[in-house]
Amino acid sequence: SPLFLLQATLNFFNLAIAQTSSSGTQQVYSCRNLGDLGSESLRQQRNSLLDSLTSQLGERYTGYIHTRSTKNKSGEQVHAIVLCPPGIEAEDCGRCVKKTIPYLLQNCRNQKDGVGWTTLSNYINCMVRYADSDVEAKYEFWGSGTFSSLDASAPPADLSPAVLKLGKELAGKIGSDASQKYASGKTIYGSDKRNIYMASQCTPDLSAENCQLCLNRVASALENLTKLGKVRGTALSINCYTRYDHDP
User: Fold this and answer.
1) How far is it, in rounded angstroms, from Cα 77 to Cα 79?
2) Helix (H, G, I), strand (E, B), or coil: what is residue 131?
3) CATH number for the domain whose boundaries are 14-135
4) For the chain (length 248 residues), average pLDDT per consecutive 10?
5) What fold is seen in the domain 154-243?
6) Domain residues of the chain, as ranges?
7) How far is CA 20 from CA 27, 117, 142, in A?
């Protein structure tokens, strides 16, 4: 697959820094600017909790984990979230998570809240997030980023409306899926009848309303990529993402 041009997205709170490796793996992280973890005990809790994540991707794998550490003597606790597409194998999700954890810890060493995203291939991607407070079922938009291809040969006038239309259709499907909050689909666009494939996902803890809000936000970033004619693009946040591609 072609190398990706990784684009940093500046949002209201901070800058999500995107990077690529020689193997083609794409990664982006964001650290929330709320200060540092309050104690060494809390940092150790975070590190141990993140190390335990792959062991929780077992027989009941759904692509989503929300877990928490045991409270220390001061009542402090760390929460962690994993999000992978529900259609991939637990082993592949685990490989992605293992790749993300050291990257996240390297870049968000002491912050109270941090998130990292990794894409290993068209199908295998994941998000790992930690926080010193309970973040489940909370819609927030402080961290975001985009991945896009170097290839910008898609006709923007045709691509943009096709991606936006398909994105709305998938958002409608996700709104009726109370369990996984994931949908994929394809459409044909342009005079040369090109196929475009898309997948969208929200963290399953979000309400249908907040999932819709999140997907609407990332749709704006995705539209910017289509206007550049990018043949492949992903727009993501801490609660959802949408990706499109000309290859299935």
Assistant:
1) 7
2) strand
3) 3.30.430.20
4) 36 44 78 86 94 86 91 88 93 96 95 94 92 90 84 89 94 78 94 94 92 92 92 93 92
5) Killer Toxin P4; Chain A (3.30.430)
6) 14-135, 154-243
7) 6, 12, 22
